Amino acid sequence: MMRQLLVFALARIKQLSVTEAEDGVDGLRKLAEQRFDLIITDINMPIMDGLKLVSRIRSDETHKDVPIIIITTEGSAEDRQRAMALGANAYITKPIQAPQVIAQVKELLGK
Amino acid sequence: MSEHEHSDEQHGSPPSRGRERRASDVPPDTLRERESFVRTFVRKGMQYTEELLRENDDLRSEIRELREEVGQLRSQVASDDAIRDLLRTVERLETERRELLERSRNLEASHREEEGRHQEIEREVSDLANLYVASHQLHTSLSVPKVVQHLHDMLGQLVGAESFMIYVLDEQRLHAVPVASEAVPADYHCEVLLDGHRMGDACLTGLPKVREPAGERPGSLDDPIAIIPFLADGRAVGVASVFRLLPQKSAWADVDLELFKLLGAQAGAALIAANLYQRVASPTEALRGIPSAVEAQLGSTENG
What we know:
The complex is a heterodimer. Chain A is mostly helical. Chain A has one domain (2-109): Response regulator (Rossmann fold). Chain A is built from five helices and three strands. A three-stranded parallel beta sheet of chain A has the order 1-2-3, sandwiched between helices. In chain A, helix 1 crosses helix 5 (98-109) and helix 2 packs parallel to helix 3. Chain B is 61% helix and 13% strand. At the A-B interface, helix 1 of A face helix 2 and helix 3 of B.
């Protein structure tokens, strides 16, 4: 559901195409196949959670500068700090507000 | 008495008769008087001339001063005119500046209003998107677990509920049977007798019951902060109870109430459709009987 909401919201940003991944592992696989300008991920995901995914992305020289937005139900300051320390660029808590996501995406993409 | 007259007198020559009277013929007293007069006349003439010359100088000087003064006055007048013009220009510009400031303030106010309206529209679009996605998700799946998962996601990700349970009613519609939950105590996982329970009231009326999430009454199994009945054909077939919201969400949003209405109207049908579909072998089998059912309906309509 979050994916569909995000796809719906991001469709309002011109010249943006979205690729979906099922989970963190699928996300890493897709990253290996093509370059992305921005990554949005949840934290609570099966197989590989979002924090591990961020850590893996940042340890890869090819993708260490790709902006990463985390959207999650985890709202504590500690969770936020941990995510930012691992290399996330933005941390948005649920419930999802499309205008907030759009604004953050635009800011990180420099639009 | 002139030198010539003196000379004649000294030489003792008698005055000539028949010739013009000479100065030596004039009595000395008269001569002296004449000389004195002439001297006096000349002196006075010289004095007068000097006075005239002085006066002339004074007048020239005065004329010079007056001319200078006139020149200064003219300059001053010109300067005054220039100052007046400048003052008029300043006043005009000041008026323009005030008008521009006023217009700027009005534009700013208008812009703020537009900005506010824009944000309002953005929020409305966002809310509509949430409702669209919720509805779309409910009806694009014919798998009961997926429909239940969608309901779970809606409550968690769209509403921002942290602790909740989803029930379906048993066949007699006496009990609510839990089918999904999030962050609830173990003893919540039990059937709930609807009679006498707030969930039962909501299922009877078909209307969501929502109360303030914060405050002295935290949500519980007996007193959820929100109860959302799922209706199908006007009757409750399921219900969701929300006990707690995420910490970052302190109050209900307008879109939450709209979502509850949507769930109420569509969740029941989605669950029934998915449940029936999973009992058939294929989509084709699921459609069996539709043409005759439609025909029968049309026939009864025509016969009135």
